[in-house]
Amino acid sequence: MSRIKLCLKSLITQKMPSLLTFLLIGSCIASSLAEVTCPDGFTLVDGRKCLFATSSIGWHEYIAKECKSMGARLVSIKSEEDNDVVGVFAFNSGCYSYWIGVYCFSDNGNTTCYNDDYSGPITFSYWAPIYPKNSTDRRDFGQGVYADSYWNGGEYWRTSSSYKNQLLKQGICEAPTTIADPSCKYNYNGYCYIPSHEIPGVTTNSTTYPKAQAICRSLNANMVSIHSKLENDYIQSIYQDIRVYQITLGAQAFQPHVFNWVDGSSFDYSHRDPFDNFTGNCLEMNPWDGLWTEINCQVFNYFLCQRKIGDKLENLRLEGPKTSHIDLSDSSGCNGTIVLAPGTVTSFGYGTSPLPDTYCLWRVATLGSDRVAVYFTEMEIGDTLYIEVYHGKWDITFNGTYSYGTYIAPGNTAILSHDSDKDTKLKGFKGVIMAY
Length: 436
Ligand SMILES: *[C@@H]1O[C@H](CO)[C@@H](O)[C@H](O)[C@H]1NC(C)=O
Ligand SMILES: *[C@@H]1O[C@H](CO)[C@@H](O)[C@H](O)[C@H]1NC(C)=O
Ligand SMILES: *[C@@H]1O[C@H](CO)[C@@H](O)[C@H](O)[C@H]1NC(C)=O
Ligand SMILES: *[C@@H]1O[C@H](CO)[C@@H](O)[C@H](O)[C@H]1NC(C)=O
Ligand SMILES: *[C@@H]1O[C@H](CO)[C@@H](O)[C@H](O)[C@H]1NC(C)=O
Ligand SMILES: *[C@@H]1O[C@H](CO)[C@@H](O)[C@H](O)[C@H]1NC(C)=O
Hints:
Mannose-Binding Protein A, Chain A, 28 strands, about 35% strand, eight-stranded mixed β-sheet, alpha+beta
């Protein structure tokens, strides 16, 4: 709900003398309009969307990456009003054809499209005739979605294969709105982020968890809590120009491997490293890959404080899109439907011995603005595991025995294929699928 609505709602429910009501309505509206703002480089459109038109033209995955590097995503369009607002903004920005935050999967000629923010299948669409296209080619299952601006093509949406002949387009990126605070350098989604190496008067950049939290408290903040992939990406972007390999997060374990955030918010999102086998009472993030691992709380690390902006407005909590699980997989895995991150793929018959001898193909994916990553926590195979992303080209192969291996696809989709003819006496493989 918007702040103006919240403000008005609280006024309506409190029967107040009319003059006071009048004054309060005035201050509600004035403060809402004055304070809602966008991160640098973004334009506030319609008082509610922070938009940016890329000047570069590229494949869906390159433009999505450009949005992400700014703490943004491809634009979310969930109503006709959104579609119009974005179409007009695009046109005024000299952007006539642009990727949007919708991504489609075709399986067996049935195409389903999803919002990039993991809120589920789209409920609004504006397809041009014959779109979305259905593919019956098993390998050609992922499709980016682009729109044309009002004057160029009437804001209609079309799909473009990510496997064959992908089109080149600009993009419209969207970041969450925030509240103006001139004293804050990293102002995002209603919070101010304060990295330890930029705290005035603090002479050590790294310290233990208890000392770090005490420093954050002295700034009227807490150590950071993270509630979405979007926020995780934003935090990575804060550290993109400095060589920091670990930052301690504001979390503590109350049971082995079960954490609470120190600021009291719910632990509703996790980006744990699948290879992490350590038991510790604290969590750190590697800003380079965004993964979280357990550590001892006495470890000296850089840290990040987080302060809510506009503390007096208790009702206001601006949130980025949440990651929730959408399960498209079937139980067999091999030759099955699409495994959407977060999920797991295992070789056929994994856990049985001897392993059956068969050829299998697995399709893995993430939604629009993220890339798909496969973390192989088990890899004991006798013949090659192929990973393919574009038509007719192996992107990487794994062969033999690895303690671990990681594959990060350039875009949303990847195809794994493997013949287990030489695996019968081996363990097979297990891959954890995550958004990157
Ligand atoms: C198409 O996919 C949707 C979503 O997975 C599913 O609900 C629907 O039954 C499928 N339709 C056909 C014809 O397979
Ligand atoms: C795609 O397939 C669905 C279900 O089989 C069908 O209803 C739809 O008309 C098809 N779309 C196109 C463009 O062929
Ligand atoms: C803290 O980090 C900043 C930025 O990297 C650096 O300029 C400064 O020298 C560091 N201070 C200490 C005490 O390490
Ligand atoms: C933890 O994983 C690392 C490799 O990621 C491995 O070298 C180490 O032996 C593992 N430790 C335990 C206790 O399993
Ligand atoms: C998977 O599909 C391939 C080729 O379509 C087929 O040869 C293989 O037997 C299938 N595997 C299983 C376990 O059904
Ligand atoms: C993979 O490794 C096995 C065993 O070392 C070998 O027989 C096979 O030829 C290798 N395959 C490729 C494609 O390198």
